[in-house]
Write a structure and sequence with these properties.
By secondary structure, this protein is mainly beta. It has two domains: 153 residues, TIM Barrel; 169 residues, Beta Complex (Endonuclease - Pi-scei, Chain A, domain 1), CATH 2.170.16. Helix content is 14%, strand content 41%. The strands form four sheets. Strands 9, 10, 11, 12, 13, 14, 15, 16, 17 and 20 form a ten-stranded antiparallel sheet that branches. The protein has an eight-stranded mixed beta barrel with strand order 1-2-3-4-5-6-7-8, surrounded by four helices. A hairpin with a 2-residue loop joins β3 and β4. The chain starts with 9 loop residues before the first strand and ends in a 7-residue tail after the last strand.
Length: 345
């Protein structure tokens, strides 16, 4: 059975280190343009607040402050004694590990030690390569990175983070496609351009979400709308970042949802608007082996499910065709996955 793990990752940017104010300003500007809004600045650089809205943090001693509240402790490691000091911070809200030579630091040990705690473990990174390594070490990686890089590298780092999540998809055979009556359908317009086959994971049961393609293919009757996913009725679940789900009826402007490609790569997209309209519906059921799963979509040729060969209109699908889904064991409580026996029919 397919499984997927999501971890909330953070990227902080240090803009307090350069001697020149203009250099510090360039880092803040580049961070904001890359969508990175957790930025460490100097207390004296108040003018940087005019560049845009961001979480302006500052370092005092070995602590990081946000609005006079300590949000992280910095531990600089150069030997085994420093490692002991890092382990002693287990239980703190957030720990940032700094080192001038990561080759001598057993990062895997720190990740393992903090993995079962509520402490957020972050690591200082000085390059795109280090950032990738820290986020992916032991498959889990650290909970976040504090980057010290040139401004022009920040867009690449932000892109690396946005595409670091992987969703495991499988294909299941369709057993039934049946037209239904009219219902309230939700159409999600995002602030991003999606590619053919890239879409959202949606379903009537949280245990099985169907990959519904964006409207990124021009049809005979309507131009393509690559920013749009015609998602389904108001009752359905849609997958959001960090493994959470939302009811389609709850989706609104400014929400963040997960765009997923057929190969499992995913990225966060922002909702521009969600439209609820009365439309004819279509039931799609698949065979999951021990049980059947279903979703409901609008009965229109512009709705495409994703197969191993690409997106296919629901008008052209037949029983026996296989479509891409994501399976999950357990249930949901207020959108969070929980370890509980729940059967949704």
């Amino acid at each position: 059975m397919a499984t997927v793990m999501y971890v909330e990752k953070s990227i902080w940017v240090r803009a307090d280190l350069p001697d020149s104010y203009e250099d510090r300003k360039d880092i803040v500007t580049a961070a904001l343009e890359a969508g990175l809004t957790d930025i460490i600045i100097r207390q004296s650089d108040e003018l940087l607040h005019r560049l845009g809205r961001f979480n302006a943090m500052e370092i005092r001693g070995n602590d990081v402050f946000l609005q006079d509240k300590i949000v992280a402790h910095i531990i600089t490691i150069s030997d085994s004694d420093d490692m002991d000091a890092a382990y002693a911070k287990e239980g703190s809200e957030r720990v940032i590990i700094s080192s001038k030579d990561w080759k001598v630091i057993p990062l895997e040990n720190l990740i393992a030690a903090f993995q079962e705690t509520n402490t957020i473990l972050m690591a200082e990174s000085h390059s795109v390569e280090e950032t990738r390594l820290f986020l992916e070490t032991m498959e889990v990686g650290v909970d976040g990175v504090v980057v010290i890089v040139e401004p022009e590298k920040l867009t690449e780092i932000a892109s690396l983070y946005n595409t670091s999540k992987k969703v495991e998809l499988i294909s299941l055979p369709i057993t039934n496609i049946s037209p239904l009556t009219i219902g309230d359908r939700v159409c999600i317009d995002t602030c991003s351009i999606m590619h053919p086959g890239e879409g959202m994971l949606i379903g009537s049961q949280s245990s099985c979400l169907f990959l519904i393609s964006s409207e990124s293919i021009t049809s005979e009757y309507v131009a393509c709308r690559p920013f749009r996913v015609n998602a389904g009725p108001v009752h359905a679940y849609v997958l959001a970042p960090n493994g959470r789900t939302k009811y389609l009826s709850e989706v609104s402007s400014g929400d963040e949802l997960l765009a997923v490609s057929p190969n499992g790569n995913s990225r966060t997209v922002v909702v521009g608007r969600a439209k609820v309209e009365r439309r004819p519906l279509l039931l799609i059921e698949v065979d999951g082996g021990e049980r059947k799963y279903s979703t409901i979509v609008q009965n229109a040729e512009t709705i495409r499910m994703v197969t191993l060969d690409g997106p296919v209109s629901v008008s052209d699908l037949s029983p026996g065709d296989e479509i891409m889904v994501r399976l999950e064991e357990g249930g949901r409580h207020f959108g969070h996955a929980i370890k509980e026996t729940i059967t949704e029919i």
